[in-house]
Amino acid sequence: MKRADLLSTAAAAALLLVTAASQAETVRCESSDGRYRSCPIDGRNGVSLSRQLSSQGCWQNDTWGFDLNRIWVDRGCRAEFRVGERSSGSSDKSNAVAGAIVLGLVGAAIIASNKNKDRDRYDDYRPGYGGNPRSTFRCESNNNRFTYCNAPNRGHLEVYRQLSSAPCDYGRSWGQERGRVWVSNGCRAEFAVY
């Protein structure tokens, strides 16, 4: 396939993605006085930061994050977030959009790989605290089961040491809610509280 064809396919997919994204919900969540706050959402289809409102930084998995039913912000992060489109019941439209997005992403990946083959993969997860944690605890999804583990209500949580070969990705295979950590899809890890 020619590069021009790949570019036009990627552009068409991007247009469909923008159309689908325009149906997503915008949620404002603010950490007032530098305090932790959570805002209820349906996070099954993903969340992205759309507009930062604070002068304090908003960094995913550091001063903001999300899981299945909430966005959380901390240390002065105030922002508007785009919450993914909920299922409309129209599987034909969803399948068409998904197919176009996949096709566009494949084309963009081919172009990007041809443009710079030596570029390192950027990983958006940045542990925010490092250093010595206040405490650690284990939480394990055995047999890919959804499991809750008690966790301290105060403090920032991170994966301290992954124990499983299955990935432990925040919001996908682990998260935090109401003083508990949940794990799923085979994620087994030691978590740190900072």
Structural write-up:
This protein has 194 residues and is α+β, with helices and mostly antiparallel strands. Among the domains are: 24-83, no CATH class; 135-193, no CATH class. It contains 2 helices and 12 strands, in the order H-E-E-E-E-E-E-H-E-E-E-E-E-E. The chain has helices at 3-21, 91-115; strands at 25-30, 37-40, 47-52, 64-67, 70-73, 78-83, 135-140, 147-150, 157-162, 174-177, 180-183, 188-193. The strands form 4 sheets. A 3-stranded antiparallel beta sheet has the order 1-6-3, with no helix packed on it. Strands 2-5-4 form a 3-stranded antiparallel beta sheet, with no helix packed on it. A hairpin with a 2-residue loop joins strand 10 and strand 11. Residues 1-24 form the signal peptide. This is DUF3011 family protein.
Quick rundown:
The chain is of the alpha+beta class and 194 residues long.
- N- to C-terminal separation? 50 Å
Q: From the helix content, strand content and strand pairing, which structural class follows?
A: alpha+beta
- How would the global form be characterised? globular
What summary fits the major beta sheet? 3 strands, antiparallel
Q: How large is the radius of gyration?
A: 19 Å
The number of strands is 12
Order of helices and strands: HEEEEEEHEEEEEE
Poorly predicted regions are: 86-92, 116-127
**For the largest beta sheet, what order do the strands appear in spatially?**
1-6-3
Estimated helix fraction: 10-25%
Number of distinct helices: 2
| Whole-number mean pLDDT | 76
User: How much of the sequence is in beta strands?
Assistant: 25-35%
